[in-house]
Design goal:
Layout: H1 2-9, H2 17-48, E1 58-65, E2 71-76, E3 87-91, E4 97-100, E5 104-105, E6 112-122, E7 130-134, E8 149-155, E9 158-165, E10 170-178, H3 192-198, E11 200-204, H4 228-240, E12 245-251, H5 253-264, E13 271-277, H6 283-293, H7 298-309, H8 314-317, E14 341-346, H9 355-363, E15 368-373, H10 381-384, H11 386-406
Parallel strand pairs: 10-11, 10-12, 12-13, 13-14, 14-15
Antiparallel strand pairs: 1-2, 1-7, 2-6, 3-4, 3-7, 4-6, 5-6, 8-9, 9-11
Helix pairs in contact: 2-7, 3-11, 4-5, 6-7
C-alpha cells in the first residue's frame, strides 16, 4: 500500500524538501528580522522622543488624616513608591502636584507605603488614583524661600524661560543648572540651599524640547549632541550680566549636555568647572543597561544604537541628524578632558549606573573628583542625603572660587 501511494503521488510536481525548508527558513528569518527591526526602532525612537505624558505608575490607595491633622498618602508598595527620600507626586493629567516626605511603613499593611503630604502646590487630591513620583521636589525657588527673577535666554530655537537667583557673597560667580532628560528647570532647585550657602548666583535654564523652552527643528532629544548649543546661549547670557566665573551643574543627560558644551563651544574657555549629578558619561553604557533592564535582546539593543547614530535610522527615529555616540563617550575620551569636574553619583542608581563615573574618575584623578552616595536612586542624591550633597557642593565651590580669585 505505501508503494502505491508513492506511485500515485510521483506524477505531481513537488518541491524538494530542502527547498521547502529553505523557504520556510527565509520566511521565518524575515519575520524575525522584521520583529528585531521593529523593536529596535521602537527602542531608539523612545530614547530621543520627549514624552507628552508621564507614565502614572504610582497607585494611590487612600489619603487620610492622622490624629494630629496631618495628611498622609498611602501608595501601593513597589520599587518607585519605596524609593528613599522625599519626592513630588504629580497626578494623572497633571491635575495636581504635592510634595511628599520619605516613605514609611504602614503598620499591619505590608503592601502599602505611607508618605506624608508636606505641601500641595496646585490642584486637588480629591478622586486621585494614580500618579507619577518625581525627584524634583519643588515647583519654584520660592518653595525654598528664594527670590527668583524670571528671565529669558535667547536660545537658538527661541526664547527659553529661566530663573535667576542672585548670589550674596560672590554674585559674579554663576552656576548654571542644566536639567536632565524628561525633567525641567525645577530639577536644580534642590541645589539652591548649597549654592546660596556658597554665595553664588544661580541660573536655572530650560532648553529645547523640555516642555518649557521651544521645540527644536525635529522635536527630538539630541542626548547632548544638540542641546549644548542652548547651554552656550545661557553662558553668553551670564557673561552679558556680569558673570566672571561660570560653573555648570548638570543632572543626568544634563551632564552629557554640559560636557559637550565645555568641549565644543567657542565659549568653552569661559567654563571654570562642572558639577555633575548622576551624569551620563557614556550613552552606549546607559543604552545597553536600559535594554537589559527592559529585557530587550542584546542584538536588538545594538541595532537600536545603530539607528540612533546613523543617517539611515533618521526615518525611524525622526531625528534631523544622527547622534554621535562616540563623541558622547567620555570614558574613551578621558584624555581629552580639560575642565575640573565634580561627579556626584549613587552606587544604587538603577537608571544611569555609576560605572562610567567610577572609570572616568580613575582615569583622570588630576581633573575629576568623585563623591559616591548610597541608597539614592537616579539623581536622588540630594533627596536622600541633603546635608552630604550640600557640603560636597559647598566645598567644591569654595575651592574653585579661591582658585579663581588667585588667578
Amino acid at each position: 500500500m505505501p508503494r502505491k501511494i508513492v506511485d500515485k503521488l510521483e506524477p505531481r510536481k513537488t518541491v524538494p524538501a530542502t527547498i521547502v525548508g529553505a523557504g520556510l527558513g527565509v520566511a521565518a528569518g524575515s519575520l524575525v528580522a522584521a520583529s528585531v527591526s521593529a523593536l529596535a526602532g521602537y527602542f531608539a525612537r523612545r530614547v530621543v522622543t520627549p514624552e507628552e505624558r508621564r507614565a502614572e505608575n504610582a497607585v494611590v490607595k487612600q489619603i487620610l488624616t492622622d490624629d494630629e491633622g496631618q495628611l498622609w498618602m498611602h501608595l501601593v508598595r513597589d520599587a518607585d513608591t519605596i524609593e528613599p527620600g522625599g519626592c513630588t507626586f504629580l497626578a494623572e493629567f497633571d491635575a495636581c502636584a504635592v510634595r511628599l516626605s520619605a516613605p514609611e511603613d504602614v503598620p499591619g499593611k505590608p503592601k502599602l507605603v505611607a508618605r506624608r503630604i508636606e505641601q500641595v502646590y496646585r490642584g486637588s487630591l480629591e478622586g486621585v488614583k494614580r500618579g507619577y513620583l518625581s525627584g524634583a521636589m519643588y515647583e519654584h525657588p520660592s518653595d525654598l524661600g528664594f527670590d527668583a527673577e524670571d528671565v529669558v535666554i535667547d536660545l537658538e530655537v527661541g526664547e527659553g524661560p529661566a530663573w535667576l537667583v542672585r548670589g550674596t557673597l560672590h554674585p559674579d560667580v554663576w552656576v548654571i543648572g542644566v536639567h536632565g532628560r524628561g525633567a525641567r528647570r525645577t530639577e536644580s532647585i534642590r541645589a539652591l540651599p548649597a549654592l546660596a550657602q556658597a554665595g553664588v548666583t544661580t541660573l536655572l535654564m530650560s532648553y529645547r524640547n523640555d516642555g518649557t523652552a521651544p521645540t527644536g527643528p525635529d522635536g527630538r532629544y539630541g542626548l547632548g549632541d544638540t542641546e549644548w548649543l542652548d547651554v552656550q546661549s545661557a553662558v553668553r547670557f551670564a557673561q552679558h550680566h556680569g558673570a566672571r566665573q561660570i560653573i555648570l551643574l548638570g543632572w543626568s543627560m544634563g551632564g552629557a549636555i554640559s560636557l559637550q558644551m565645555a568641549d565644543r563651544s567657542e565659549l568653552g574657555g569661559a567654563i571654570d568647572a562642572l558639577m555633575l549629578v548622576g551624569p551620563v558619561i557614556n550613552w552606549v553604557d546607559v543604552l545597553s543597561h536600559q535594554a537589559r533592564a527592559n529585557k530587550i535582546p542584546q542584538s536588538v539593543g545594538r541595532f537600536g544604537q545603530w539607528l540612533l547614530s546613523n543617517k539611515a535610522g533618521r526615518w525611524i527615529t525622526g531625528q534631523a541628524a544622527p547622534v554621535n555616540l562616540k563623541r558622547l563617550n567620555w570614558v574613551d575620551r578621558a584624555s581629552e578632558l580639560t575642565h575640573p569636574i565634580l561627579l556626584m553619583h549613587s552606587r544604587d542608581d538603577q537608571f544611569v549606573p555609576n560605572g562610567p563615573s567610577l572609570k572616568l574618575a580613575a582615569l583622570r584623578p588630576d581633573l575629576v573628583s568623585l563623591k559616591t552616595f548610597t541608597k539614592a536612586g537616579h539623581t536622588r542624591e540630594p533627596n536622600v542625603h541633603p546635608q552630604l550633597f550640600a557640603q560636597t557642593i559647598v566645598d567644591f565651590l569654595a575651592d574653585r572660587i579661591a582658585r579663581g580669585s588667585a588667578s
